[in-house]
Design a protein that fits this description.
The chain has 12 helices and 13 strands. It is α/β, with parallel strands linked by helices. A hairpin with a 2-residue loop joins strand 12 and strand 13. Helix 4 runs parallel beside helix 6. The mean pLDDT is 91.
Length: 365
């Protein structure tokens, strides 16, 4: 195989920074290869992705040295419009790259700029919306979509230009399990139909580590290239199944549940169960909450109680109403019906008065 992207001794420093974000990084991505960038937050993963499409340094500025080639082009000196067709990137916050009002317009926008004929545009839109399981959103306004839905739309808009290298910055961070499977499955299907190289920066490695051909561990601006098996042994943060394999000394360290099950077959395992204290008095109670955005009903007759000291996991698919419920408890959404109580008293109407009981950290800080 030939390399679609090559970095040689690349060092990059952001404007005003005291130290480099990338320090003497050398790596290659082969044509058709699936590469996983793994490592701690602020370790340099996103910066490395942005070197491949030229946003570093063209957009961010700063100082860069070393050698970079993507599809034979120097991303630091090739116009951004040209690089977008060679190395398409989906950002961690999909809102930051949206330009149109509706889903169909957003997916079509890049193709319109490239002058792609309408019939071909329609074919690509149909195929991508179906592959990413968002066909039902085709005419929806982006402002009405959940975070996960917007992330899939952003991926479709980038894939519409059919880049040779797809750069994904935490593509599953806002997706439910079904959405994550749909996105990664669509990328897998695209790689089978044409030669597509993929570089993914991600913290949630459960689905990605078994898929990767190679792993680039990025930490403190330094990069180390390894196989997925090596990554399962060497990375500080690995999927639970890899951690299980480490603890029980399995060789090789399993990458999947099936491998772990086979490795542990016949072993006697002991599990320590810790006592969980009972929750205290009810701190927050909601009864019969109903919230709608125009004709779109987000909550229907939702009731719950949260006791002092209690930890509750609110789970469900993208767009099912989890964020809306949080916003209703915090006073950011006014319910059409229902009531919220704090410590047995009706919750105050003003958001600032609710923060002592319901302080909200949003999905996009």
């Amino acid at each position: 195989m030939s390399a679609i992207a090559t970095l040689g001794d690349v060092t990059y420093t952001y404007p005003g920074s005291h130290g480099p974000a990338l320090d003497s990084v050398s790596c290659e991505i082969e044509a058709g290869e699936y590469v996983l960038l793994a490592g701690p937050s602020a370790g340099g993963k996103s910066t490395l992705l942005r070197v491949f499409n030229g946003l570093v340094p063209q957009f961010h500025g700063g100082r860069i040295s070393g050698r970079a080639l993507v599809a034979g082009m120097d991303p630091a000196r090739t116009p951004a419009r040209r690089m977008a067709a060679l190395a398409g990137m989906v950002f961690q916050e999909p809102e930051s790259q949206a330009v149109a009002e509706t889903v169909e317009e957003e997916v079509a926008f890049g193709m319109e700029q490239e002058g792609i004929v309408r019939g071909e545009m329609r074919r690509r839109i149909d195929a991508l919306l179906g592959a990413l399981n968002i066909g039902q959103l085709r005419y929806r306004r982006l402002a009405t979509l959940s975070g996960g839905e917007r992330q899939r739309v952003a991926i479709a808009s980038v894939l519409a230009l059919e880049p040779a290298l797809l750069l994904l910055d935490e593509p599953t961070s806002q997706l439910d399990p079904a959405g994550a499977d749909a996105v990664l499955g669509a990328v897998d299907a695209l790689r089978q139909t044409r030669e597509l190289s993929v570089a993914v920066a991600e913290h949630r490695l459960e689905r990605l580590l078994p898929r990767a051909d190679r792993v680039i561990g990025v930490d403190g601006g330094r990069a180390a290239v390894m196989t997925p098996r090596e990554a399962a042994k060497r990375l500080a943060a690995v999927p639970p199944v890899c951690e299980l394999g480490r603890r029980f000394g399995l060789e090789p360290v399993p990458l999947t549940v099936e491998e772990a099950r086979a490795g542990l077959a016949g072993r006697r395992l002991s599990i320590a169960v810790r006592d969980v204290p009972a929750p205290g008095a009810v701190l927050v109670r909601a009864e019969g909450l109903a919230v709608a955005y125009g004709e779109q009903v987000a909550l229907r007759d939702v009731s719950l109680a949260v006791g002092e000291g209690e930890i509750i996991a609110l789970v469900g698919p993208n767009g099912s109403g989890k964020t809306t419920l949080f916003r209703a408890l915090a006073g950011l959404n006014r319910p059409a019906r229902g009531q919220v109580w704090f410590a047995g008293k009706p919750a105050p109407g003003a958001v600032r008065e609710r923060t002592a009981f319901a302080g909200l950290v949003p999905q996009d800080p």
